[in-house]
Please model this.
Amino acid sequence: MNTYTKRYSYMIPAVFAGVLLLSGCNKFLDESNPSNYTIDRYFTRAEHAQASIDAIYGPLRDIPGGGFGGAAWTMTEFATGLASTDLGQAVNSYYVKDLKNTAENGYGTSYWRAYYAGIANANLSLEKIPGITMDETLKKRLMGEAYFLRAWYYFTLVRLFGHIPLLTKPILSTEDPEFKPKQANPEDVYKQVVEDLKTAEAAGLPWTSKEGRVSLGAVKSLLANVYLTMAGYPLQKGKEYYSLAAGKAEEVINSGQFKLFASYNDLHDPAKKNIDENIFMIQYKTGVIPGNWQDLIIPYNKGISAYSAETGGIYATPDFVKSFEPGDYRTAEKQFFFTEYTDEKDRKKNVALGGYFIYKLLDSVAQVSSANSDLNYGIIRYADVLLTYAEASNEGAGPSTKAYEAVNAIRTRAKLAPLAGLSQDAFREAIWRERWFELCYENKTWFDMVRTRKVFNVGTRKFDDFVGHKFSYGPVLTERELLFPIPSTDVLNNTNLQQNKGY
Model:
């Protein structure tokens, strides 16, 4: 029983893993305890529906956390060649950073296991909630949240790993034919993602949610990103899908529900959770479930933090920060980056840090006092929507007034001159650069590299082909790096899985 759970629990709804363990051992009992929940007895009330939906959100939190062992969220950052680390024991970071990755990398395993657990919970909720007698409007909304979250998990997994299992029904037994599933064609996974998001779009969700639940704004924003990705590699669906992406992004813009923050400090201000620019976030709360990535982004052993661990787990390469346009306010001290901080023992004294650390993710209050962060972790923000619209609309008809307005809103905040008078090709690269700078260290850049097959060269400030691009510190990208390896334990345990090329 323990082996079964360890190897394949990512296929079983995590909310009921314990229940299944109990029910699997009932041959040792003379009678069952009616107080024990089983899946068949659980889904009977509206409260059960709500609790099962809440369980789908849970695996989102498995990725941002980190400490001395590193963190899964850094995987796609080290894969860009724009991140450094001083955390010697976090070997997974170095394997990715130096393009020597293997299928034993724990970061990829974390994504695979956590997100399939989320998918399993979503599948269970989507099968069982329709049978509950409850308010139909609430039922439809809750299922809309489940469809969105399943779409998010699959969209991430298919981009990371390519050919992956596509499961849309719960798997509750080793006898289920899908217990060891085969891999699906990526296009089929994308079709399911779009179908799920369209269903969520029609579920009656509010445009925004101050509580951090899935909103209509989040659904339309993600759908725009999905269409943008499908327009590029690997599917290469082209203009039709660029048009779809532009249309969905424009709906978000025209809704008037979202706006850019006036200050970059608002990006990491707990008081600004789930409003304005923050369209969808992973929820944390100090003293309950605090944000768990702070010790990873603190410079290594500089004595500046209330946290006991200062790991230096990830920070920006100097070459990248210096590649920003001259005068870009995002590179000013304590905007996107910081190079000095106050001494933990004497806050009137500054300590030089010797590098460019990621201020846009830093909880200042937690660093100087509580060591218990109240920050949320952002997944979708309005700046991304604006840049998606600008890029996608340009692919259809070249630069338009509205496309210039979208990108220039971001440049204005960065105290840069507005773009004007560019050709379609020049505008495309200008938008790509803006994405590289504005969305850095937010798990966006590597996905842009893969869908465009282009990489920003920090030396020339132009774009190289993905294959053959040389990182500023030496390694050269090959075709292998267009995907991450499927975790080796899953390939060994499921003979229907084939490993990605080169791993």
